[in-house]
Amino acid sequence: EVEAYDTNLGINQVLEERLRAVSDALERLRNGTYGKCEIGGEKIEDERLHANPAARTCVKHFVKL
User: Is residue 40 within 8 Å of residue 61, measured between CB atoms?
Assistant: First the structure.
């Protein structure tokens, strides 16, 4: 049971982080900033948004967050 709890706890943390990221993306949709890099302000590449719709930065600035 302890091992299963540890496994589920890790999965739960990942899912909570993803939910938070998606909620943030929905908020950006509402306020008109979705698809804009949070660092440089440029458009986030379509391929990046397709792979990760909750992306906050363009590829160029990805490692800076």
Answer: yes
In terms of Cβ atoms closer than 10 Å to its own Cβ (0-12, 13-18, 19+), residue 37 is buried
pTM (two decimals): 0.78
For the beta carbon of residue 25, count every other beta carbon within 10 angstroms. Answer: 19
Do 44 and 58 contact (CB within 8 A), yes or no? Answer: yes
CA–CA distances in Å: residue 6 to residues 19, 42, 63: 20, 40, 29
Q: Are 61 and 39 in contact (CB under 8 A)?
A: yes
Query: How confident is the model at residue 64, as a pLDDT?
Result: 57
